[in-house]
Amino acid sequence: MKILKRIALLLLVVFIIAQFFGPEKNDGDIATVEAFIADTNPPEDVHLILKNACFDCHSDHTRYPWYSNITPVNYWMADHVRHGKGDFNVSKWNDYSDKKKDHKLEELAEEVGEGHMPLPSYTWTHSDAKLSKEQIEAIEEWVKMARIKYAFLKDPQ
Description:
The radius of gyration is 20 Å and the shape is elongated. The mean pLDDT is 88. The protein has one domain. The chain is mostly helical.
């Protein structure tokens, strides 16, 4: 029994020390999404959906809940954000070619339409990010309209 107490104490000490270390936060300026918003012109309802369900992982600005300061949760969240931004970062919208912009919008509609995005692990703690059928349809309709511009730019007649 003494060994179990020592192991538990050691684990507690390691856990406490780990709280002083953490990954770099995604604390960029939310204004970095403005180019994406201006270029794709989502209606207000879709803009709100994007803000609540997408931008935390797919932009250079994340809203962090209180529990994100606890190790190992902070590493788990940082990994989600890193992967999300690696797949699609609206803050880097102006760096994408027109062809890539069109493709990213197409992927956005597919991922949302198939229920892959937002991730269930995100919606567990962000209930406002759970998308209704109507919200998914609104996103898909907006994407169709936004892609018209890039289809023309990719292949002008």
